[in-house]
Amino acid sequence: MSWQFNEANSRERELFASLAMTWCSGGQMVNTSRMSTLYRVSSRSGPASAGAYYVKLYQERGRGLRRYLGRSRVRAEWENLLRLRRLGVPTVRAVAYGEDGRRGALVTAELPGAMDLRRFVAGQLDRDILGAVIGRLSRHVRAMHRAGFVHGDLKWRNILVTQSDEDGFKPKGGPEVHIIDSPQGRWLPRVLRHRGVIKDLACLDKVARKRLSRTQRLRFFLEYRQCGRLGPTEKKEIAMILKFFEGRE
């Protein structure tokens, strides 16, 4: 059995002292699946910044061979959150993680006032604010991919937007964008990375084509590629993005 903390304060170490205590921490169930159940746990005492936490309890190590071999899904999610932070990509703060046989738990700190990208775009009428969010997202995804990391499940629900930090201050340059929930994420050598990159971009565009204008989608891509106009290489890549999910839905 293993249990470890990351930048946890004394209150968090008390609340989630072990895998057994975390497993029984209760809270409000957010969603559940055959593999895991997610709870929101409030911190009723301690520092105001402690807020609430999300506790994901895994009943299985993973699907397929991952049930028996290699890195478990909960460990992958923990390690990938830490890697995103090291890359400078905003994400949720990983507090604690552990596993024992088939079961495991991951604790992350709640982002105050966060909403997923779909909800944010649905209620956002200010073009400048929306443009700032698109710009930040493109830079974060670019940083991730340039470092050789692909997310593997870059859906809009796995992108959170906050308009103020934990202390209530608005970040410079508009709302901040956070990339979360990446148990499928992995480092890939350049020769194998291209398909993973295209999949990440196709996941983003799958919803973007219904919620954003063509100009906004093009702006994201140009900022992601750090170019002022589309050349033959960029046009080919866009075609691959648009066709990626054809016949799979």
Explain what this protein looks like in three dimensions.
A hairpin with a 2-residue loop joins strand 5 (94-100) and strand 6. The chain has eight helices and eleven strands. The protein has helices at 10-15, 19-23, 73-86, 117-123, 127-146, 190-211, 214-225, 232-243; strands at 2-5, 28-32, 36-42, 52-58, 94-100, 103-109, 115-116, 149-150, 159-162, 176-179, 186-187. A six-stranded antiparallel sheet has the order 1-5-6-4-3-2. Strands 7-9-10 form a three-stranded antiparallel sheet. The model is unreliable at 45-49 (pLDDT under 50). The chain is of the alpha+beta class and 249 residues long. It has two domains: 2-109, Phosphorylase Kinase, domain 1 (2-Layer Sandwich); 115-243, Transferase(Phosphotransferase) domain 1 (Transferase(Phosphotransferase), domain 1, Orthogonal Bundle), CATH 1.10.510.10.
